[in-house]
Design goal:
The complex is a heterodimer of chains A (113) and B (111). Chain A has no helices and 11 strands. Chain A is mainly β and 113 residues long. Chain A is globular and about 40 Å long. The chains are: A mainly beta (113), B mainly beta (111). The interface between A and B is medium-sized, with 20 and 20 residues.
């Protein structure tokens, strides 16, 4: 298995632009999580899905953030419009019912200038 | 809000030394996990502990879960430069469905 695949690895964008981050979870995993990591705040859970259904989006900072999971093999996190304070590393992780351990992707480093 | 506190935040020691890092909470975990994260990569799961008092070993790493399931420790024997990284504990609190991560301990092993 190729693991959790995220794209792009790096994204530099100007303030106000739309940013879309992509994630392909491990096949057979039924839970998917989006995290944001910064030095100041550590790893923060933004939203998670079970069987493609959003369960808890209480960590989404504001309405500028949205996430979708149209099928079991793909999810997106969109920021529109982006702001400099959104600069962080965004991780996607997946897990299965049988194993509570998370498998993380390599992350997307987002820089908003 | 259920919080996980890790200590120390930063630790820099010489190769060959032993070290212990800690993870504490005021709430009871149904399970707890330890991850290691290297620069430019996502966290990688090292171990999951479930039973109070449980001890698990992974080569030179020893993980212990407190009897009351509110705390955990990670002990590394004879640390090596390859152990350098960010060590994160993550707890699944009773009745919760999502992991809560601590801030991590940033470990540096100097040759």
């Amino acid at each position: 298995d190729a693991g959790v695949i995220q794209s792009p690895r790096h994204e530099v964008t100007e303030m106000g632009q739309e940013v879309t981050l992509r994630c392909k979870p491990i096949s057979g995993h039924n839970s998917l999580f989006w995290y944001r990591q910064t030095m100041m705040r550590g790893l923060e859970l933004l939203i998670y899905f079970n069987n493609n259904v959003p369960i808890d989006d209480s960590g989404m900072p504001e309405d500028r953030f949205s996430a979708k999971m149209p099928n079991a093999s793909f999810s997106t996190l969109k920021i529109q419009p982006s702001e400099p304070r959104d600069s962080a590393v965004y991780f996607c992780a997946s897990s299965s019912t049988e194993d509570t351990g998370y498998t993380f992707g390599s992350g997307t480093r987002l820089t908003v200038v | 809000t259920q919080l996980l506190e890790q200590s120390p935040q930063f630790l820099s020691i010489q190769e060959g030394e032993n070290l212990t890092v800690y993870c504490n909470s005021s709430s009871v975990f149904s399970s707890l996990q330890w991850y290691r994260q290297e620069p430019g990569e996502g966290p990688v799961l090292l171990v999951t502990v479930v039973t109070g008092g449980e001890v698990k070993k992974l080569k030179r790493l020893t993980f212990q879960f407190g009897d009351a399931r509110k705390d955990s420790s990670l002990h590394i024997t004879a640390a090596q430069p390859g152990d350098t990284g960010l060590y994160l504990c993550a707890g699944l609190f009773q009745g919760a469905q999502k992991l809560v991560f601590g801030q991590g301990t940033r470990l540096t092993i100097n040759p």
